[in-house]
Amino acid sequence: MKRDMAYYTHCKNRLARSPLFTGLSDELMDDMLEMFRRDSWRRGVQLDPSLFQQRLFLLVDGRVEVTRINPQTGRSITLFLLGPGDGIDMITLLNDRPHEMTPVALDDVSLISVPLGDARAWLEKHPEFNRNFLPYLGEQMRKLEDLATDLALHDTMTRLARLILRHVKPCNSGPTTGERSLHLINDLHDESLARMVGSVRQVVNRHLQHWRKQGILHKRHFQTVVTELESLQDYADESPTHGDTEKTGSQ
Q: Where is the Cyclic nucleotide-binding domain (predicted)?
């Protein structure tokens, strides 16, 4: 990309606020961005996994859901929900093995991309980037660990509560005192949330309706906010005070 482009400045500002690029010098950012080209995907598009064996993609605007699909049953589960500043399938920087994953654009998405070979050469040239890159990969591994733990050890209501709590914006109150807004999942449909917790839409909808009736969640203008954070935390901790009847059929 050319440095005098308005989009170049936009990309640089967006990426600089993300964990993968925060704190990097202007010189390092400029050296990296010069390699990239601009891309865009329309909402709802599903990308061929082989594309990510050829190019590295970084999100600038919008969200991408990375799923794994069983071709026999059609069932799917969400592995990652990515936003601005995230890289898609960045493990390909470390090896050439193909991955069974399907990225889906949840919004009209703006990205930048570079051939994988060029990205690997840049990493070798700038080992100082590892100060951000390795913790970022570690955080992605931790998310997969959390997903595996939730699926193996917790029922659906607990998994859903834990998912929502992971996306609560810290120290961010809504227009009503005590409300907490959500990051990335604030406007997702029940079906998308179900894929993220390994369940089905009907079960997730039932739990969400239950929490709205209790005043734990509130939906305003298609945006969900948490109004009773401590109560939701009780569900995430599988507190026995809520009784078994509320979790019947949640598996």
A: 56-114
DSSP 147-209: HHHHHHH--HHHHHHHHHHHTEEEEEE-SSTT-EEESSSTT--HHHHHHHHTS-HHHHHHHHH
Query: What gap in Å lies between CA 133 and CA 236, rounded to an integer?
Result: 30
Q: List pLDDT tens digits, range 45-80.
A: 999 888 999 999 999 999 999 999 988 888 899 999
Residue with token string 């040239």: 125
Residue 92: which of 124, 125, 65, 116 has the closest Cα?
A: 116
Both 169 and 243 in one domain: the answer is yes
CATH number (domain holding residue 66):
2.60.120.10
What pTM does this model have? 0.87
Asked, for residue 1, whether it belongs to a domain, the answer is no
